[in-house]
Amino acid sequence: MNGDGVREVIIRTHHEEWARVVAALTRRFGDLDIAEEAAAEAFATAVERWPADGVPPNPGAWLTTTANRKAIDRIRRESKRADKQREAQMSYDEPPRPAGAIEDERLRLIFTCCHPALAMEARVALTLRLLGGLTVPEIARAFLVQEATMGRRITRAKAKIKATRLPYRVPGAEDLPARVTGVLAVLFLVFNEGYLASGPDTDPVRRDLTAEAIRLTRMVRALLPEDGEVAGLLALMLLTEARRTARVSASGELVTLDEQYRDLWDAALIAEGHRLVRDRLASGVAPGRYQILAAINAVHTSARDARDTDWSQVVALYDQLVRLHPTPIVALNRAVAVGELDGPEPALALVDRLRDQLAGYHAFHATRADLLRRLGRPQQARAAYDEAIALAGNTAETAYLTRRRDQLG
Description:
Residues 77-97 are annotated as: Disordered. The protein is mostly helical.
């Protein structure tokens, strides 16, 4: 295998194995910093050695073994050497612990990091960093905050875990309901980063992240089959993933929902998602955030043509979602639906109210640009497209916005 081939294997292995290695080391050594740094050192060693020695038959096992050795070496160098060395060696030699309620290593650590003692944003950010495979800039973009702010949140979360000695134990079945909200938030953001990557240095759609988020959400559903929000999130992911092959053109440009070739949609995923939505409606229990988002996507995927979309139903569902989860992004998405139902003028008025909250969000400016274009105000539309392009990190989205701007003449 040539050098380029080895580099591709290392990149793919990082996507696939990073979280497993970190999870295994955290469970063994009980220290997030040690786990993360040892995993990073193992991957750095792979970058040095694999081009010369060849890719090992089982890259994940090689990385886990190497990372374990790196962690033990670090502990040996630290203060109180004898006690720490003995503790590390005992941990290293002990037989695998029983999995408890959760058998998957990665999902187990997600539940562990989503401890109720941490603030919700800290739980989500920390877990995304360690297990979602996301960088601090990617997480910061997901939360619409500065990179330095997000870095401090993650650092504080690690420090609190260490100071309060939160246990890295396998959560029991009784712990799951109290932690599931944070777990679902993590899985939702991991899926979103895969659905439309926020950075310019990755593929615009990251199948590895969407597939892993769906896999883990299926496992959470198996653990909590009666939880409506778990079912809602799974339905939302399936109905969104069903459109993946139609979302980027052959030239690498984003294809918006109204322009997608719907025969490319995955009918099996749509059927499964619709079934989950129907089952939740039949339960008679008031829906939560993810269930409403899934219902909105069910309306979109029920239409054989974009012109057949029941926009009055979409607006009604967003009205319900705004009452339940009143965030600026929900309000922005509701304004888009209002624009389809009532026209661009009332929609633009709704969007402009969000400027102070969403001025740094590219989709705010992209939405304004489209509404201004429809209102026949090309100069203002061009300026809004320029702002959206400057803020958008995704290459496919940037290509789409550039084309729409240039069509203004």
